[in-house]
């Protein structure tokens, strides 16, 4: 019956991202997929901005010449959602002995929640890959702990290889690597701490190396981003309640409609009640290793809710502002709500255990609990109702409780279905983009007009979207990194892009553009945004291409090229190769190495 949770997870994943199955590309807020992308310095994390999209951009650049880039992104997102749900089911089966019905409840908790909905609407498809890896990372860390105790080489090899692969999968983005690293280090135990830490560093090698070599590590982040990205209170819940319900993203526009009504309160209340029914069963009972793992996940969940809530208070924001202004790399902490993902594994375990608790309570064929723990020592004397043998449970009662739990989880958030009520839909780029890409050559980087990083194209819907030019064109595209959030503007790390944008908006000369290393200027005509006095500058340039949507201009004369270290690029490419080896090799070895304790 193990195929049932896998199939159920696939059904839920397809139900969520259904509209994306058709042709087209994901273009929604921060999500930008393109037919092809290129292995530019920016894709490797060596541009002026912080390497926030490393190694995901490099992965797409390597694969998209062979497989359409839009198809790759949709496949990764679909597999990630499936893995999140199935991973929660496997974790519940292994750590609390959940029945099939209870495993389906764990799958529902992992997939059908506000966190998934909000991050989909925000366009954080690669962050969801890190989210999906969390139950598998927890399972791998638990197996490392138990394999080391049993001293079986197959168990040990499979566990360490699985941990390497899962950490690499989570490391598709820096935030995913941090989420997985915290989970793995919390569960593996002190004796395995250094080994797991070494794997985490290796899995994070692309963005760690790019950060060190690009010089971004020495630049602090804008403290304004702390208040801008602080967790947000939802109707009737407050900040703490919103976070406890796995919601509260900073962007009030990137939430399902149901979370703006009383359904947010109802859905959060039902989720927390379901989690609470199994909390005691998760915390007590079972053998020492599984009990340690479950308690560690519960503690992580509590911290994942409490710390972001504290970070949204005035004094919490003050502490974080000091950190990002004085500690390089602390900018990763500014969007505190995304770390609520750490609560998902524990929530899934508690919901699955709660299903077992209620099924046992209402089953008419349950045996005396005193007999369930006889003859197994002190640990099993305190065996939880969820992790005790399930043979005496009435299947009908167990299925009924699981069905009720699943309905209570899904109904308050029905608008998560079908691309969050159609908000996620594939788009089709005008043919001009391909023609522009074919004409981008020669020395220098590409500057873009209008100013700013976000666009509203006629084909992209109502929500602002990140400019696709950096992923669409074979040369580095200058971007300021400035983010308009809640009426504030959060500054980026680099200065050259900002200087070039100012130069264009003030009608600077072609010679000044060339001095800044700009070889081409792209004008995106079908989107609003500041143009300033750029006509004065464009009149001095040579037009290469023009249609209703786009125009490309070449800067005449000699272009001053900025220094590009081939050694740095070699190091970063090597770091990406190490990440790829961990991802593919780790998962492959874990799959083909049978564990002694695995049921055949």
List the helices and strands and how they pair.
Elements: H1 3-17, E1 27-28, E2 31-32, H2 56-63, H3 69-96, H4 100-111, H5 114-122, H6 125-150, H7 153-170, H8 174-188, H9 193-203, H10 205-214, H11 224-228, H12 238-244, H13 263-283, H14 288-311, H15 314-326, H16 344-362, H17 369-372, H18 377-381, H19 395-410, H20 417-422, H21 431-439, E3 445-449, E4 454-455, E5 465-466, H22 469-472, E6 483-485, E7 488-490, H23 496-505, H24 510-515, E8 518-524, H25 534-538, E9 542-546, E10 550-554, H26 566-592
Parallel strand pairs: 3-8
Antiparallel strand pairs: 1-2, 4-5, 6-7, 8-10, 9-10
Q: Short summary of the structure?
A:
With 600 residues, the chain is α+β, with helices and mostly antiparallel strands. It contains 26 helices and ten strands. The longest helix has 28 residues, at 69-96.
How would you explain this protein's 3D organization?
The chain is α+β, with helices and mostly antiparallel strands. The chain has helices at residues 3-17, 56-63, 69-96, 100-111, 114-122, 125-150, 153-170, 174-188, 193-203, 205-214, 224-228, 238-244, 263-283, 288-311, 314-326, 344-362, 369-372, 377-381, 395-410, 417-422, 431-439, 469-472, 496-505, 510-515, 534-538, 566-592, and strands at 27-28, 31-32, 445-449, 454-455, 465-466, 483-485, 488-490, 518-524, 542-546, 550-554. It has 2 domains: 3-422 and 577-592, no CATH class; 431-554, no CATH class. The chain is 56% helix and 6% strand. The strands form 4 sheets. The protein has a 4-stranded mixed sheet, sandwiched between helices. It has a two-stranded antiparallel ribbon with strand order 1-2. α3 packs across α4, α7 (153-170) crosses α9 and α10 (205-214) packs antiparallel against α26. The chain is globular and about 80 Å long. Mean pLDDT is 91; it is low at 364-391.
């Amino acid at each position: 019956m193990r195929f049932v949770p896998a199939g159920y997870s696939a059904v839920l994943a397809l139900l969520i991202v259904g509209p994306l199955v058709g042709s087209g590309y994901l273009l929604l807020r921060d999500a930008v997929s393109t037919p092809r992308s290129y292995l530019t310095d920016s894709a490797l994390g060596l541009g002026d901005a912080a390497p926030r999209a490393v190694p995901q951009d490099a992965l797409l650049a390597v694969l998209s010449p062979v497989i359409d880039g839009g198809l790759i992104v949709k496949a990764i997102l679909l597999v990630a959602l499936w893995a999140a749900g199935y991973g929660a089911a496997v974790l519940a089966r292994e750590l609390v002995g959940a029945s099939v019905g209870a495993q389906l409840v764990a799958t529902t908790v992992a997939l059908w929640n506000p966190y998934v909905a909000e991050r989909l609407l925000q366009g954080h498809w690669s962050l969801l890959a890190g989210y999906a890896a969390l139950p598998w990372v927890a399972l791998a860390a638990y197996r490392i702990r138990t394999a080391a105790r049993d001293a079986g080489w197959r168990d040990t090899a499979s566990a360490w290889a699985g941990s390497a692969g899962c950490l690499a999968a989570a490391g598709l983005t820096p935030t995913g690597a941090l989420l997985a690293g915290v989970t793995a280090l919390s569960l593996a135990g002190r004796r395995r701490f250094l080994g797991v830490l070494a794997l985490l560093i290796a899995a994070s090698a692309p963005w760690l190396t790019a950060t060190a070599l690009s010089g971004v590590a020495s630049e602090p982040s804008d403290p304004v981003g702390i208040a801008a990205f602080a967790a947000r209170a939802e109707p009737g819940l407050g900040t703490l309640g919103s976070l406890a319900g796995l919601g509260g993203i900073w962007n009030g526009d990137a939430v399902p409609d149901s979370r703006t009504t009383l359904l947010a309160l109802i859905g959060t209340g039902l989720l927390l009640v379901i989690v609470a029914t199994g909390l005691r069963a998760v915390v007590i009972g079972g053998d020492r290793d599984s009990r340690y793992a479950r308690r560690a996940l519960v503690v992580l969940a509590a911290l994942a809710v409490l710390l972001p809530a504290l970070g949204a208070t005035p004094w919490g924001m003050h502490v974080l502002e000091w950190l990002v202004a004085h500690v390089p790399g602390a900018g990763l902490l500014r969007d505190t709500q995304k770390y609520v993902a750490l609560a998902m594994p524990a929530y899934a375990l508690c919901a699955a255990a709660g299903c077992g608790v209620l099924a046992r309570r209402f089953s008419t064929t349950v045996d005396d609990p005193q007999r369930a723990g006889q003859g197994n020592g002190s640990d099993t004397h305190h065996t939880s109702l969820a992790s005790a043998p399930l043979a005496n449970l009435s299947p009908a009662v167990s299925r009924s409780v699981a069905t009720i739990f699943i309905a209570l989880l899904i109904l308050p958030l029905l608008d998560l279905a079908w691309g969050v009520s159609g908000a996620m839909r594939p788009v089709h780029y005008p043919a001009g983009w391909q023609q522009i890409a074919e004409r981008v050559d020669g020395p220098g980087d590409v500057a873009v007009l209008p100013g700013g990083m976000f666009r509203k194209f006629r084909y992209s819907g109502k929500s602002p979207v990140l400019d696709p030019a950096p992923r669409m064109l074979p040369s580095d595209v200058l971007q300021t990194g400035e983010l308009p959030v809640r009426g504030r503007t959060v500054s980026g790390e680099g200065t050259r892009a900002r200087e070039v944008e100012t130069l264009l908006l003030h009608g600077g000369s072609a010679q000044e553009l060339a001095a800044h290393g700009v070889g081409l200027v792209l004008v995106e005509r079908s989107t609003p945004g500041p143009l300033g006095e750029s006509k004065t500058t464009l009149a001095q340039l040579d037009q290469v291409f023009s249609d209703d949507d786009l125009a490309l201009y070449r800067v005449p004369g000699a272009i001053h090229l900025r220094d590009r270290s081939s050694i740095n690029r070699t190091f970063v490419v090597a770091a990406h190769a190490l990440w790829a080896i961990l991802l593919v090799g780790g998962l492959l070895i874990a799959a083909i190495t049978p564990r002694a304790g695995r049921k055949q």
